[in-house]
Amino acid sequence: MSQEQLDILQRALARERAARKQAEKILEEKSAELYQVNKKLEESHTELMSLYDKTNSQLQGVFENIVDAYVIMDLWGNILKMNDAAVKLLGFNDVKTNSNLMELVDPKEIEKVATSFKTLMEKGVITNFKVKIVTKTGEKKLAHINASVIYEKGIAVGAQGIVRDITVESDYQKSIEAERQKYMSIIDNMNLGLVEVNNEDEIQFVNQQFTEISGYSKDELIGQVGGQLFPVDKDKDIIVLENEKRLKGKSNSYEIEVNTKSGEKRFWLISGAPNYDISGNVTGSIGIHLDITDAKRNTELIQEQKRELDVIINNSSIGIVLTQYGDILKTNATFQDLLGYSESQLNEFSIKDLSFEEDYPESKYYIDKMNLGEIDNFTVNKRYKKRNGSVIWAKTNVNAVRDNDGNIKFQVALIEDITSERERTLIIDMINNLTKSILGKTDVNEIAWEIVNNIAEYLDSEDCVIYLVDHNNNTLEQIAVYGEKLDEDNKIRNKLTVPIGEGIVGSVVKSGISEIIKNTSKDKRYIVDDKQRFSEITVPIISEGRVIGVIDSEHKDKNYYTQEHAKALESVASLVAIQLRTAINIRERKKAESKNEHLLLELAKSNDELQEYAHIVSHDLKSPLRSIEALVSWIKADNSGKFDDVSLQNFDLIATTLEKMEQLISDILTYSSIGSETQEEQEVDLNVLIDELKQILYVPDHVSINVLNTLPTVKGDKTKLQQLFQNLISNAIKFNDKDSGVVNINVEEKKSFYQFSIQDNGVGIDKKYHDKIFKIFHSLNSSKESTGIGLSIVKKIIDLFKGEIWIESEKGKGTTFHFTLKKS
Predict the structure, then answer these.
(1) What is the DSSP letter of 603?
(2) What confidence tens digit (pLDDT) does each residue in 766-795 have?
(3) d(Cα 444, Cα 440) in Å, to the nearest integer?
């Protein structure tokens, strides 16, 4: 492009800028004029409100001196008293008048007054009430009333109020309208398009210039929604946004693309400001419009043809560095902020000084190609050293600026910070890889190893450890490590155990809050494990509100870890917490199951030994008892007629005791054998079983056994069922002291079980013994028929059938045993 063409374009741009400045100057002048008008109105309004807001709360004795009209009335509106100001306002001749205030109310306001009076009586006070009145002299006025109820001994007897004439405000409204008309006359003839809209963006006024730039007449525009009529679709949201700003009292300027009435696409520069009413409320907005289509097109043409020369300006939102032979000549503010250096400080560096040695070979490869003329630009992702010692990753685009001979004169580097973007990518990749690696794993150690390997790779760290918290022993134990702590067999070298609360990891367990240590040499809590490292990050693994583990990583450099690292590890901790907790539970369950299996084996062995012991004891005890019984019998036979009655009675007592001891031994054997026998279950008809028991048991003539409902057929061990019912029925018979004994057997079918009851009208059982009767050897009656084991046998059988048994009884009135049997 020739210099002449560039000069033409520069002049066109200068004219466009001048036109824009002229438009903005006009807008500022008109806005200033509007501001001064509003300012005068606000000052006048302030004086008016100051005049009418004065009040005096003094009542009886001084009310005549109140500047405002003051009236006292009864509950029916009859005037009781008023001051001179009220006489003047309401049009009376003097203060002594018999009149009702309702006579002064505009007939159209009667209902409004009645409603306000009801409010006054309910609340005791009413403020800021406005009503139209007609005075005694016929003047129409607008009155402002603040009133309160007068009480005597807590009873409402009247009301008092301050009345102000606010009719004059309408004069100010007329003044405002006159000023507005004057203002509209001025702007209607200005050479910029002006539009006034209400809060709904409906056009209220346009000037002549606006009709010319839009192509519509005033009649066609009034009432239309401006934001829908003019902008092209892509710019309609801009109008909505800018209108919202104006509603909040903000002035603004912006550009939009519009369609005129003829369908021509044009560009407008709009400068707008909110419009206010006398109370300061936003009622809409006023916008001044300048058609900048031609200027904009010229600007776009210049920008298009100067794109190569304007690279630095057009990319000023990212870091820009101008270098020569690698030395930094100039930088923009973005790059300076990016690395934390001033411009003068950066000018002392070369790009190589700010880069990492490991990244240099890739950059050098492209620079060599650029020097050979093979390429003019290249892009690499590389690291830069910040002044505070931290690191950023940046996308670096290098462009060559050549002289007329094609030699590189300068290099322009565009540098975009991609640290966060790269961090997010690494986090996502790390979490995805970790999720896949621990999927389906239930072993705590396997999960921990996967965690340390993935985190160490993500952090580019030479040390990473997973600790497991042992709350029983109040310690943390290393269960997985990455780095130099692993020996040749991939086992942890010198495994570390840390008390909770000690060291940085112990402190994090106690607090449950992640920590980043930028310099461990300044932290007294730091525990040197295999070697000293200067950066440490520690994150708790929390499950169900409790810390169950810790992720800990160290790095040799200071200030290495960032908050982004902490957030990433916290995400990992949340991810693995549930699976790690599940793995821990599985491990603990396996330990418990192993322990239970051992206990069950020991219990089974113990039960077998106890069973064998019970049989041996029963056999060994019964033999001497029978021998004693035989000896007593022989002594009685050999000495027949020689013993007196007392001795014979003692022999009978010995026989009874021997008989009871033998029964006791039999019952013990029965009790101990329950549950150990493995008889096959069968269908047992309980009706038949009860009939068989009636034949076996001794049932006195005065006792009747009644089955109230048909009993079910249940599946189970018939012998144990027979023992169950036999013991309960025998007890009911045995302990019945009534002349007419009754034993009632009943059943009630439930959803999953049968509920049986065996009721008698015998001696009953005191309530204090209800919890004791099922214990072995506990008998409430001392008799040879009772060993105290019968109900214990019943309870053991019920437990075997996974049922329940309970008692209802009252001493002297009988007993009811309830028990349940599950359905098969």
Answers:
(1) H
(2) 887 777 677 654 444 444 444 446 687 788
(3) 12
Tell me which of 406-420, 566-580, 581-595 is least confident: 581-595
Residue 635 and residue 648: Cα distance in Å, rounded?
A: 11
Owner of token pair 């509100």: 545
Helix, strand or coil, per DSSP, at residue 683: strand
Question: What is the pTM for the complete model shown?
Answer: 0.36
**Through-space distance between the first and last CA atoms of the chain, rounded to whole angstroms:** 102
Which segments of 157-292 does DSSP mark as H helices, in order? 168-187, 208-214, 218-221, 226-229, 236-247
Residue for token pair 């100057």: 25
Per the CB < 8 A criterion, the answer to whether 64 and 72 are in contact is no
**pLDDT value, residue 379:** 93
Q: Which residue has the higher pLDDT, 652 or 328?
A: 328
Q: Extract the tokens encoding 575.
A: 């991810």
Give yes or no for a contact between 266 and 291, defined as CB atoms under 8 angstroms apart: yes
Mean pLDDT of all residues belonging to the chain: 81
What is the chain's percent helix, strand, coil content, to nearest 5?
A: 45, 25, 30
Report CA Rg, the chain: 52
Mind listing the pLDDT tens digit for each residue in 424-461? Answer: 777 777 778 777 877 777 788 888 888 888 888 888 88
Rounded CA-CA distance 131/824 in Å is 87
Torsion region of 687: left, alpha or beta (phi above 0 gives left; psi -120 to 50 gives alpha): alpha
Token pair 């070369």: residue: 350
Alpha carbon 127 to chain centroid distance? 44
Burial letters for 590-605: b for 16+ Cβ neighbours within 10 Å, e otherwise?
eeeeeeeeeeeeeeee
* Cα distances (angstroms) measured from residue 570 to each of 225, 332, 585, 743: 52, 36, 22, 71
Q: Residue 40: phi, psi to the nearest 5?
A: -60, -40
Cβ contacts of 417 within 8 Å, gap of 6 or more: 318, 319, 338, 392, 393, 394
pLDDT given for residue 778 in this prediction: 44
